[in-house]
């Protein structure tokens, strides 16, 4: 089964069909399929900078965190939660903001759905396509209108990524489930305390419930926690790959750390699209 794609050119929206080494619509808009297998459907109006999304350095840091298994237990529990809330229907799973694709693959194994990963960062999607050639990988801006017809997906996942509830609802099929994972209140609390002098986090899970209050019903919520020891290199990678990147005095304090045991915490929420 191949995920249906829609031409991303503004005002077009015709179906894309595989034609040689590209994807093209009936009007003649064509998009190259990269050698690694991903297709870049990012339009000029969808990018804010020349290399949107995570920088190559942040992607490399994420990759090292994945390869060292730092978030292994966390990802395992997110996947187990996904398996519990998977709709009975077979079909596609969209990972919006898929990064280097390892979480996408954990989710597809757990749910039995077919993986489709979308991210705005070409470097991350290229890596995902090389590593996991069995899935569909697309460069696009998941914040905007995504290049899929209405009702394409059985599940849409947003794992520590941007969220677009209205667009997620459009691409979800009837009874489709949206899985949203955000950092929990005490995520990296020890590190924040060492760098900022305060560990107070935000209750992002409840904010997500409010974001998805219209058009969805909450079907599950779980707090997932693990404790891991980060060495100097892992600390650098965590700092480089999160939005909490250290600056100035914080960077000096970070440089003084040799290793640290930290809490990893995620709030996982599942909401079902309301029909009608
Ligand atoms: Zn077109």
Q: What report would you give on this structure?
A:
The protein contains nine helices and eleven strands. It is globular, with a radius of gyration of 19 Å. With 276 residues, it is α/β, with parallel strands linked by helices. It has one domain (37-273): Rossmann fold, CATH 3.40.50.150. The strands form two sheets. It has an eight-stranded mixed sheet with strand order 4-7-6-5-8-9-11-10, with helices on both faces. A three-stranded antiparallel sheet has the order 1-2-3, with no helix packed on it. Zinc ion is lined by residues 7, 9, 12, 14, 25, 27, 29. Residues 7, 9, 12, 14, 25, 27, 29 line the site of zinc ion.
Derived structural class: alpha/beta
Principal-axis shape:
globular
CATH superfamily annotation: Vaccinia Virus protein VP39
Instruction: Please count the helical segments.
Output: 9
Alpha-carbon distance between the termini? 28 Å
Q: State mean pLDDT (0 to 100 scale).
A: 90
What name does CATH use for the topology? Rossmann fold
Largest sheet: 8 strands, mixed
How many strands in all? 11
Low-confidence parts, pLDDT < 50 over ≥5 residues?
none
Question: What's the oligomerization state?
Answer: single chain
Cofactors, ions, other ligands: zinc ion
CATH architecture group name: 3-Layer(aba) Sandwich
Spatial order of strands in the largest sheet: 4-7-6-5-8-9-11-10
What is the beta-strand fraction?
25-35%
Radius of gyration (Å):
19 Å
């Amino acid at each position: 089964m191949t995920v249906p794609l829609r031409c991303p050119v503004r005002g077009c929206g015709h179906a894309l069909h595989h034609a040689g080494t590209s994807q093209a619509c009936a009007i003649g808009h064509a998009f190259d399929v990269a050698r690694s297998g991903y297709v870049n459907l990012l339009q000029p109006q969808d990018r804010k900078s020349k290399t949107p999304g995570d920088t190559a350095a942040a992607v490399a840091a994420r990759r090292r965190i994945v390869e060292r298994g730092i978030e292994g237990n966390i990802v395992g529990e997110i996947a187990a939660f996904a398996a519990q809330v998977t709709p009975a229907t077979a079909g596609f799973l969209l990972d919006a903001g898929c990064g280097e694709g390892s979480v996408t693959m954990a989710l597809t194994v757990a749910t039995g759905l077919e993986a489709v990963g979308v991210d705005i960062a070409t470097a991350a999607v290229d890596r995902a396509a090389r590593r996991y050639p069995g899935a569909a990988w697309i460069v696009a801006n998941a914040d905007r209108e995504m290049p899929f017809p209405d009702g394409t997906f059985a599940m849409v996942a947003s794992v520590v990524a941007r969220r677009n509830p209205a667009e997620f609802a459009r691409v979800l099929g009837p009874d489709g489930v949206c899985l949203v994972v955000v950092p929990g209140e005490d995520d990296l609390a020890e590190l924040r305390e060492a760098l900022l002098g305060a560990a107070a986090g935000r209750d992002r899970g409840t904010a997500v419930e409010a974001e998805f209050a219209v058009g969805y019903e909450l079907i599950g919520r779980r707090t997932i926690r693990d404790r891991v020891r980060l060495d100097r290199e892992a600390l650098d990678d965590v700092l480089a790959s999160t939005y909490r990147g250290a600056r100035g005095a914080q960077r000096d304090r970070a440089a003084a750390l040799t290793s640290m045991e930290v809490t990893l915490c995620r709030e996982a929420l599942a909401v079902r699209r309301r029909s009608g």
